[in-house]
Amino acid sequence: MLQESIELGRPLQIVTLDMAEKKVTVNEEDLASLTKSLRETGVSQVAVVSVMGAFRTGKSFLLDLFLRYLRHDEKVRASGAEADEAMPPARAEGVQFPLPDWITSAGGTLEGASDDCSAGFRFKGGMDRCTQGIWVWSEPFVRRIDGKDVALLLMDTQGAWDSQMTKEQSATIFGLTAVLSSKQIYNISMQIQEDKVENLTYFMEFAQAALRAASNDLNSNSAQKPETLQRINSEASRPFQSLEFLVRDWKHFEDEFTMEQCHEQMQDHMSRHLDPAKVAENSTVTALNNMFHKISCFCLPHPGRKIEKETWTGAVKDIDSDFLRFIDSYVKNVFKTGLEVKSILGTELSTMSFAPILRNFVEAFHSSAPAAMTFTQAMTNCTILLAKEGAMKNYQQKMDKFVASNNRGSDPEVFQAKHDSLVKDLGEEFNKATIFGNQDVVAEAWTELQGNIQRMHARYVEENKRRLERALVSLANIALVGLALFLLDWLSNWVCDWWLPVCYEMSKLAMAAYVLIFGYLGFQVWRLWKDRGQLAAMMAGGELWKEMIRLLGLYGDVAKNTNCADFPAVLKRIVSGESAVPDTNASGNQALSFLHLQFRLPALAWGTPPHKTNNQ
After folding, report:
1. Which fold has domain 2-370?
2. CA 411, CA 471: separation in Å to the nearest integer?
3. Who contacts 146 (Cβ-Cβ below 8 Å, separation ≥6)?
4. C-alpha span between 247 and 5 (Å, rounded)
5. What is the DSSP letter of 159?
6. How far separated are the first and last CA of the chain, in Å rounded?
7. How far apart are CA 133 and CA 26, in angstroms?
């Protein structure tokens, strides 16, 4: 069970709320674990789906169902199989909804039903608080959003209006969730009510006010162009991306309703409570609509009375069939059509910048009352970090491409010219990037970035130097062949050429072969001398001799650990590409496998990168 939990992931508490000190802090150990998982996905962008709401309204239970769906969908896509999209029986027909594959594939018990299983968000029934602060699932799910692979994070927040939490503390948790989430699911019970909308609006205004104040401060003290500032102001006025009211335990779906009629009822319920044109006292509703780019609503029926009991074991069979029908529709809507990449004031969040940006905003909310200057610094730090990350990634990609196209190294002057050209281009792009702060802040950030690029450039210079020195290394095998043929010809002159015609003819063939080989080697040395000078040619020649000596030692090990009768089979396997060699000891087999790679990969190949030959 422990091994299974490790493989499936675990909840990580990345933000804690200190009730005594009335402040929020980062859990660095769990954040480091999450950062490692984000980097291992190999993608660059992040999407965050968070569930927030009142104390004990089933947020963690919902997230456990999300986990089941995402794990199943990930396995299906990894296997290359097509997901089962067969249409279930219509709701109005009265036929029981069949259990979806994603519900049953992981077993008959939900993972978060007890303290004994850490493979889910703990939601065990009863009155004990299960969630403290902000939790994130440790394993990101790679999803396809707008044609790009994105790391999806699931977030669970401490219940607001907890009897031990003040309104300001709830606002702190909700404000952080709002800033970090690309889709917020507001989990409420029974129906949308005016007090729920008012409280949510208060929480959102709490974060929006700090963002707007930071934006205003930047307007008066920024090096940005007017059009960039205009875009920032526009984003600050509507800073949050997507909000969905998820109404739990909805009682108004009639048995004869089709799913289409149920969706119409959901939309009607949302418009009566969230459409400014239909709400009498609409100032709060208008303010909420102006904060989000998209607001929607979905209603779920009750999952079954057994779910509420403290003794419920998490058995899937106890979940009501109608609830499963709606949750199946809901998870597909959330994760197939409702995802967006996370952005902060128009700047997309990345897997590399998630952790430092989280730290900046937690610091901004540190005292449960973020000040404008604190938020200004947080936004400044975030935009500088994103701009630096983009520039470093751009430089690395272009240098990697340049190095890969010059496997034998480049002339130092050409290499330096390429670096200077890239730095110039990066400087122009950096000046166009959205960076909050005055000209001094931007200049300081560019100076730090130049230092980082220079350190990276030094590593590329060393790599290029190694490639220049090893420009002839890939010719070591053919040089050894030529040397062997020369020695055989010399030996035959004394042993058999003077009395055996066959030996004499073979000697002439050997001479013709090694003359061609030495001529080819001489041409490569001459070309290197002409292109890079005498010193470079001499250094490359020295490395060639070192490689030849190394290979002689290797071939000696092969000969020592292989019976004479096995040599034909060995040669046949080397030529055919087989790496396994029978009837040899472990060291001999390892040496033969390496010998096979030496012949198959670098021999006679002009375009083989020297460093790859060395790594073999």
Report:
1. Rossmann fold (3.40.50)
2. 12
3. 341
4. 31
5. P
6. 40
7. 10
CATH architecture of 386-469: Up-down Bundle (1.20)
What number of CA atoms fall less than 13 Å from residue 27's CA on the CB side? 18
**CB 151 within 8 Å of CB 19:** no
CA–CA separation, 331 and 328 (whole Å)? 6
Burial 534-546 (b: 16+ CB within 10 A, else e): eebbebbbebbee
Q: How many residues does the chain have?
A: 616
Tokens 């989000």 belong to which residue? 292
Alpha-carbon torsion (543, 544, 549, 551), positive or negative: positive
Residues 407-419: tens digit of each pLDDT: 777 777 888 888 8
Please give the torsion angle defined by the CA atoms of residues 478, 483, 487 and 493, in that order, rounded to the nearest 10 degrees.
80
Positive/negative CA dihedral, 527, 530, 535, 536 = negative
Check if the beta carbon of residue 52 is closer than 8 Å to that of residue 177.
Answer: yes
Q: What's the rounded Cα separation, in Å, for the pair 74 and 356?
A: 28
Look-up of token digits 């968000």: 121
Has residue 590 got a pLDDT over 50?
A: no
CB contact burial 573-587 (16+ within 10 A = b; e otherwise): bbeeeeeebeebeee
Give the pLDDT mean for 437-459.
82
Q: How many CB atoms lie within 10 A of CB 495?
A: 13
- What are the domain boundaries of the chain? 2-370, 386-469, 473-615
User: Of 394, 538, 568, nearest to 468 (Cα)?
Assistant: 538
Classify residue 56 as left (phi > 0), alpha (psi -120 to 50) or beta: left
Q: For helices 194-220 and 283-291, what crossing angle results, to 10°?
A: 50
Contact of 59 with 11, CB cutoff 8 Å = no
Taking the CA atoms of 359, 363, 367 and 372 in sequence, report the sign of the dihedral they define: negative
Q: From residue 596, give the alpha-carbon distance in Å to each of 392, 476, 558, 577.
A: 39, 14, 11, 7
- Better-predicted residue by pLDDT, 421 or 591: 421
Select from 201, 232, 180, 464 the least CA-distant residue to 346.
Answer: 232
The answer to whether the pTM exceeds 0.70 is no
| Nearest residue to 135 via CA among 157, 151, 111, 161 | 157
Q: Which of 356, 342, 412, 409 is nearest to 384 (CA)?
A: 356
Q: Is the dihedral of CA 492, 498, 503, 504 positive or negative?
A: positive
